[in-house]
Write a structure and sequence with these properties.
The complex is a heterodimer of chains A (75) and B (332). Chain A is an alpha+beta fold. Chain A is 37% helix and 25% strand. The termini of chain A are close together. With 332 residues, chain B is mostly helical. The two termini of chain B are 18 Å apart. Classes of the chains: A alpha+beta (75), B mainly alpha (332). The A-B interface holds A 6-8, 10-13, 39-40, 42-50, 59, 61-65 and B 69-71, 74, 97, 99, 101-102, 104-106, 108-110, 112, 177-178, 181-185, 188, 198, 201, 205, 209, 296, 299-300.
Chain lengths: 75, 332
């Protein structure tokens, strides 16, 4: 699966990326984590509050740093 | 004293805390009447007060803001134009949760949905400028009339600034890709528990982000408060000096600090006889315009629009400073 972190590279985005990695590891899933920093691409998901979390092409959360546990529900 | 006045003194100004800290300082053998003792008292009192107020305020305000995600704001503003739309945008700007790193996706989302530039810019100016938490802190440090006046003039700058930018017909000054992005994204619905959780997380996150600014700000404030002679500051930035407001704005624009860090400096400066308008102009310049945010904005708007935006906001802040200095006697 592909997990995308949408955000300009602020602290929150980095934190979300790390939680996503932990969530994938905890779920025992092979996941590729992609950081999307290009504003055009972020906007193409219709996301207006960063960081955004995209799992396999679907936006599952915006404007929040989810914990690894919360991310686990979307995997 | 009225009940309201007493509540204001105890809850917002926390005079009890100042007394308590004063006694604590005296107990360590430092006399609060001396320079060093006074500085220590000011520093401890201000730091504790700001963090208490900050935590309570951000909790309450984040709860309110959780009802106004950007998607909802965009829907409320959709299809509107004119002065009414600018006013609504400026008001919603104070209610929508805002983080400077989100301002660009938000700009793209608004513009792609067909909102006029005038409305989008009214929102973008008011959002960092008129922050609910800072308004209540202003009431704590100065008074409610000052805080309310700050809100009103902040909204006026946002409304007039947005309207001016709209009048200049710069709709073509937006990076090409912005208008081609799809408009999707529904506001997520939150349960009561999620709202409270969101508010709690915001407190943790904002306190974590701003504490260095607060400590530095209070430190500078404590220095000014007790060590810098009033006549030096008066000679440089006194109310009778015409250049005080432009200097404050020019110093403030490139600065990237948090409003919670600038408030204690503002408080100390006003105590030394610097005009209220000068201090408010400085705070507005620091929060509404900063080099990092302008550099980010440059990626989605072309240079002429960026310069216009900076110019309009600068002129607005200058006018506010001059007007406030002229009418200070009504407030203090």
């Amino acid at each position: 699966m592909i997990i995308k972190i949408l955000g300009s590279g602020c602290k929150k985005c980095i934190a979300l990326g790390e939680n996503a990695k932990a969530a994938a590891a905890a779920a025992g899933r092979q996941a590729e984590i992609v950081k999307v920093t290009d504003f055009a691409e972020i906007a193409s998901y219709g996301v207006m509050s960063t960081p955004g979390l995209v799992v396999d092409g679907k936006v599952v959360s915006t404007g929040k740093v989810l914990t690894a546990q919360e991310i686990g529900k979307f995997l | 004293m009225s009940v309201f006045g007493w509540l204001n003194d105890q809850l917002l100004r926390m005079t009890w805390l100042n007394d308590l800290v004063g006694q604590g300082v005296a107990a360590t053998g430092l006399d609060p009447a001396t320079r060093l003792g006074g500085s220590v008292q000011f520093f401890v009192y201000d730091v504790v007060k700001i963090f208490i107020l900050l935590s309570v305020l951000i909790f309450v305000i984040s709860y309110v803001q959780s009802h106004f995600p950007p998607e909802r704001t965009r829907a409320m503003l959709g299809g509107r134009s004119g002065l009414g739309a600018n006013t609504l945008a400026a008001l919603l700007g104070t209610l929508t949760p805002f983080c400077s790193c989100s301002s660009i996706p938000l700009f793209i989302g608004f513009t792609a949905a067909g909102l006029p530039l005038a409305v989008t810019f009214s929102f973008l100016i008011s959002s960092p400028l008129v922050d609910l938490a800072s308004v209540i802190l202003l009431a704590s440090i100065f008074s409610w009339p000052v805080a309310l006046a700050y809100v009103v003039v902040g909204l006026v700058v946002a409304i007039i600034g947005g309207t001016l930018i709209g009048r200049l017909g710069m709709e073509d000054q937006v990076a090409g890709f912005v208008r081609t992005v799809p408009v999707t994204g529904e506001a997520a619905t939150m349960t009561q528990g999620e709202r409270l959780g969101y508010a709690r997380d915001q407190v943790a996150e904002i306190v974590h982000r701003v504490w260095p600014y607060v400590l530095i700000g209070v430190g500078i404030g404590a220095m000014i408060h007790n060590w810098v002679p009033g006549d030096v500051i008066g000679a440089l930035l006194g109310q009778d000096k015409w250049w005080s407001v432009p200097v404050a704005v020019l110093v403030g624009i490139p600065m990237y600090a948090d409003i919670f860090g600038t408030l204690p400096i503002a408080e100390a400066l006003v105590g030394k006889g610097v005009g209220l308008g000068t201090v408010l102009a400085f705070m507005m310049a620091v929060t509404a315009l900063s080099l990092p945010s302008l550099i980010m904005l440059k990626r989605v708007v072309k240079i002429p629009l960026l310069i216009t935006f900076t110019g309009v906001v600068t002129v607005g802040i200058l006018s506010i400073g001059l007007i406030f200095n002229a009418i200070t006697k009504w407030f203090i």
